[in-house]
Design goal:
By secondary structure, the protein is an alpha+beta fold. The protein is 41% helix and 19% strand. It has four helices and four strands.
């Protein structure tokens, strides 16, 4: 699926270190649906781990990882997430929105197939 428009609530020029930060991105697809995604850099992941004093990145909604927070790198990553009818974009967007009961049912249904 094609990207119609990308909007940055925080403009990229406001990011102090494009190699160590994370931002929200609104992605509007050609079908008219808009998805909110978080894009993060590897250095920012390490910084967050250090801040939390953890040897791992705390579980949460998936983030799209880019080397730098530039328009080209964010657009390229989002474009790859929009392949196959935006399967991965939709999966990342939906993660964290299911109740544990629904997730357990989905797992059970998959295991029974």
């Amino acid at each position: 699926m094609k990207i119609k428009k990308i909007t940055f609530p925080t403009e990229l020029v406001e990011v102090n270190d494009i190699t160590n930060d994370n931002i929200d991105v609104f992605v509007e697809l050609e079908d008219g649906n808009t998805y909110t995604m978080v894009v993060i850099t590897p250095k920012n992941i390490l910084q967050l781990m250090e801040f939390d004093n953890k040897d791992y990145f705390v579980a949460g909604s998936p983030m799209i990882i880019v080397k730098e927070l530039t328009y080209d790198s964010v657009y390229s990553a989002l474009r790859s997430f929009c392949e196959d009818e935006a399967y991965w974009l939709k999966e990342y967007y939906l993660s964290g929105s299911f109740s544990i009961g629904l997730l357990n049912k989905m797992v059970k249904d998959l295991q029974e197939d």
